[in-house]
Amino acid sequence: MASDDPAPTAAAETAPVLVVDGLVVRYPGPPPVVAVDGVSLRIGAGEVVALVGESGCGKSSLARAVMGVERRASGTVEVDGAPVAPLGLRRRPLAQTGVQMVFQDPSTSLNPRRSLGAQIDDGAAVARARGSATAEPAVWLERVGLDPAWTSRHPHQLSGGQKQRVAIARALAAAPRLLVADEPISALDASTQTAVAALMRSLTTAVGAALLFISHDLSVVRRIADSTLVMHAGRIVESGPTELLWDDPQHPYTRSLLGAVPVPDGAGRIPAAPTEAERATWGDPAVPERA
Amino acid sequence: MSRPAGGSPVLTIRDLGITIGRPLVHGVDLELRAGRIQGLAGESGSGKTLTSMAVLGLLPRTATTTGSISLAGTELLGLTERQLRDVRGRRIAMVFQDPSASLHPQITVGQQLTDHVRRHLRLGRAQARARAVELLERVQVPAPASALGRYPHQFSGGQRQRIAIAMALACDPEVLLADEPTTALDVTVQAGILHLLREVATERGLAVLLVTHDLGVMSAVADDVAVMQQGRVVERASRAELFAAPQHPYTRQLLAALPGSSLEEAPRGL
């Protein structure tokens, strides 16, 4: 995803953090499904890349396969040049704890019986064991905009948005090189959504980590992602710098997707839903990646 | 059933107060008019969902309410559960964020639709079935006759929401409460549902209360918008006025949090 920008970003100068090549995920069926159909992507240090597309397009399968949670039928995934092994029943080797994930629903990803401080410290412990810099749980709480005195609180005392902030704190406390976030804001409330997404961006870029941000919320993606990948039927049909993609979408699918977002201008216009004829054009081959 | 003229008041909320342990909603006034979509915006915890739950008589038992909610002259606050059951689903229908909440997972779509219309409208079996097919046709579910024999999980999220809307319309209600009806859907699917809501409101003279945090959705379909903050309506305006010239600081703040505006917490490099 490195761009040929005249003022190259840090990402363009150094080797990418995440390199995915020819990734394929299949589900046996019946009927058998190719959920991810030969996807390649790169994310540099401090770079935020969004993955958008409709439900069922394969974005969650892609995220899970990158993490090694989903079995890869073929293709490779490397973080800082080292392959990411499939996740087994055992704990991940320490060297691979640089890959962290934030899930959609913080009420299921946090342990209800343990204090916030203890759960954030799980992340911090991993970072310390690797010899990476991290901070105390109270400091992490403060960084995600919560009260540092809340370390002894439990998840049930928090709202959905606050819980997601804790999940983010835990992931970042592990000093990840790559953070994969699968619909991290869709279970949250509107104004909270933007704030949490903005927080994820600022904290991951501050530590020079790569962020793969998966969302069906195009408005938020537009605000936080350096570049955007558009996925349809298991393939990346278009990719490029976010603003460029927004201003001048090339692939018919991207055009339909962006055209369906209602504009808050008070004009009372309902965007046209894609017609069958339009849907028929979505299967067209991917457009070349833009610089 | 005779329909009120377009624009005439159908449901009037006056000085509504809700207390659950502590006061949560204060002095809310709203008027839903035939064929019009009244938007209700605000963050979670602002009282917008509590207000719509009060209309349905679905507040928890520990809640106390003050003020008045009047449906075409009938006071709803203080009705017994039995009296409310006659109103809920028949005269006031609802659509929620998660269509699965309105549909039983183990009963076919056809059975649910026909049970619903037979119970409330006292139709015979054949008539109820014809009505069900007609409703599914109206909400543009493909192959309605065969859709009747399928279960909710056999439909996509967007189709399920269409079926939930069909259920809501089944008894020809006067009022439709739609709480975040498109929030869980893809934008491409959302557009179709918004068109459907707009059409049924107009053609049936349905008074709609649309609760949403998405100001894009609000701008697309609402005729009038009320903005709630901390249990109070802080601003009320026509759609055009609200977006062109928001008066209350909180409304301005909501509009400023929209995409395209600058992101203070993490400025983009572009």
TrEMBL record, chain A:
Q: Name one GO biological process term.
A: transmembrane transport
Q: Which UniProt keywords apply?
A: ATP-binding, Nucleotide-binding, Transport
Q: Does the keyword Metal-binding apply?
A: no
Biased composition range(s): Basic and acidic residues = 276-291
Keyword Nucleus found: no
According to the record, the residues making up region (Disordered) are 268-291
Instruction: Write down the InterPro entries for this protein, in alphabetical order.
Output: AAA+_ATPase, ABC_transp_ATP-bind, ABC_transporter-like_ATP-bd, ABC_transporter-like_CS, Oligopep_ABC_C, P-loop_NTPase
GO molecular function terms listed in the Swiss-Prot or TrEMBL record: ATP binding; ATP hydrolysis activity
Show where the ABC transporter domain sits: 18-258
Checking Pfam families in the record gives:
ABC_tran, oligo_HPY
- SMART domains in UniProt: AAA
Q: Which PANTHER family match?
A: D,D-DIPEPTIDE TRANSPORT ATP-BINDING PROTEIN DDPF-RELATED, TRANSPORT ATP-BINDING PROTEIN
Could you say which protein family the record assigns here?
A: Belongs to the ABC transporter superfamily.
Protein's recorded name: Peptide/nickel transport system ATP-binding protein
Q: What is the lineage of its organism?
A: Bacteria, Bacillati, Actinomycetota, Actinomycetes, Kineosporiales
Automatic annotation (TrEMBL), chain B:
- Domain ABC transporter, first and last residues per copy: 8-255
The keyword Cell membrane belongs to this UniProt entry's keyword annotation: yes
What UniProt keywords are attached to this protein's entry?
ATP-binding, Cell membrane, Membrane, Nucleotide-binding, Transport
Tell me the protein family, please: Belongs to the ABC transporter superfamily.
Q: Where in the cell is it found?
A: Cell membrane
- Name listed for the protein in its UniProt record: Peptide/nickel transport system ATP-binding protein
Kindly give the SUPFAM superfamilies that the UniProt entry links to this protein: P-loop containing nucleoside triphosphate hydrolases (SSF52540)
What Gene Ontology terms describe what this protein does at the molecular function level?
ATP binding; ATP hydrolysis activity
Q: Which domain of life is it from?
A: Bacteria
The membrane topology of this protein is: Peripheral membrane protein
The UniProt entry's GO CC annotations, sorted and at most eight, read:
plasma membrane
Checking Pfam families in the record gives: ABC_tran
Q: Which CDD domains match?
A: ABC_NikE_OppD_transporters (cd03257)
> Main location per UniProt?
membrane
